[in-house]
Design a protein that fits this description.
The chain folds into 2 domains: about 60 residues, Ribosomal Protein L25, Chain P, CATH 2.40.240.20; about 160 residues, Alpha/beta knot, CATH 3.40.1280.10. The protein is an alpha/beta fold and about 240 residues long. Strands 6, 7, 8, 9, 10, 11 and 12 form a 7-stranded parallel β-sheet that branches. The protein is built from 6 helices and 12 strands.
């Protein structure tokens, strides 16, 4: 069943979809009156029937509702800026797996060094990628794509979370040793480096602030592969897969 998101809950049992999504429903999907689709709002899935349809607005009747299947682990991915368009792949896959927020981070070995203004031009596309991935994977939310921050800012944010993790190719503990209990509701920050990894200074900064350094094994993973592997393992350990 086609899936869409809405910022507004039903009013008198009705929902409305406007803008690009309305055009997509009417023109691309070619749905008709009484066809059914799912609308997600605030982590609730509404099973809906189309009442009226045009290129600019779809009116729907919400017939039933259920809580969407979001992970109990509230995961923020801090991804150091990779080269080219690799961040798009990271955002797509992190969204599919269950990340709640994705934060680009500028670190010492980042080859791509965007200014805030340059990133703002890319952000709309990145948010669209997250939106489409959330629809495709049946998410209950659209992950937030944050503006670029420094490593110091990322570390400061992670200190306030239940668990902070840095993937470090030079060694560390395993994800399985972190003591995650199945179904536990925790906020987790996962920090992943760029193609060149982290400097020793950056690793020390994280360790001195209580962030766990984690090693994914003897095979060096690409910067776009490592977060996919780590998120999958964390959600599996938490019974969220």
């Amino acid at each position: 069943m086609p899936r869409f998101f809405s910022d507004q809950p039903p009013i008198d049992g009705e929902l409305r979809i406007t803008g690009d999504d309305a055009w997509h429903i009417a023109r691309s999907l070619r749905l008709r009156l009484n066809d059914r689709l799912t609308v997600c709002c605030n982590r609730v899935d509404y099973s809906c029937t189309i009442l009226s349809i045009s290129d600019s607005e779809i009116r729907l009747r919400a017939e039933s509702s259920s809580m969407s299947k979001e992970p109990s682990l509230r995961l923020t991915l801090y991804a150091a800026l990779p080269k080219k368009d690799k961040l798009e792949l990271v955002i797509m896959k992190a969204t599919e797996l269950g990340a709640e927020r994705i934060v680009p981070v500028l670190t010492e070995f980042c080859a791509l060094r965007l200014t805030g203004e340059q990133f703002a031009k890319k952000k709309q596309r990145l948010e669209r990628i997250a939106y489409e991935a959330a629809k495709q994977s049946g998410r209950g939310i659209i992950p937030q794509i944050s503006d670029i921050i420094s490593l110091d800012e990322a570390v400061s944010e992670m200190r306030s979370m239940d668990l902070g993790i840095m993937l470090y190719e030079k060694g560390g503990v395993s994800l399985g040793s972190l003591g995650l209990a199945p179904g536990e509701k925790k906020s987790v920050g996962l920090l992943v480096g760029p193609e060149g990894g982290f400097s020793e200074r950056e690793a020390r900064l994280c360790q001195e602030n209580g962030i766990k350094t984690v090693w994914l094994g003897p095979r060096i993973l690409r910067c776009e592969t490592a977060p996919i592997a780590a998120i999958s393992i964390l959600l599996f350990l938490n019974n969220d897969m």
